[in-house]
Design brief:
single chain; 75 residues; alpha+beta; three-stranded antiparallel β-sheet; 3 helices; 49% helix
């Protein structure tokens, strides 16, 4: 039996807030401040009181910060 290609992220590809904070070094309030300013990925609602972030979007945000730093160092 062949494996079907994944078309969308799975639950294992979602990060809860403590993990987002650990990976980014941002506080809870700073994460939400940046989400409101549209400078950080928005969370996905999982239920009435639960949200999570798509891991690849958080990873891309981190990679962008690293790339921005590299550009500044070259200049």
């Amino acid at each position: 039996m062949q494996n079907k290609p994944r078309l969308s992220p799975s639950v294992s590809d979602l990060l809860r807030l403590p993990e987002v904070m650990r990976r980014t070094g941002l506080s809870r309030s700073e994460v939400y401040r940046r989400v409101a300013a549209e400078t950080f990925p928005a969370p996905v609602k999982l239920g009435a009181r639960a949200s999570a972030w798509v891991a690849v979007e958080v990873g891309a945000w981190i990679a962008d910060r690293i790339a921005a730093r590299a550009v500044k160092e070259v200049a």
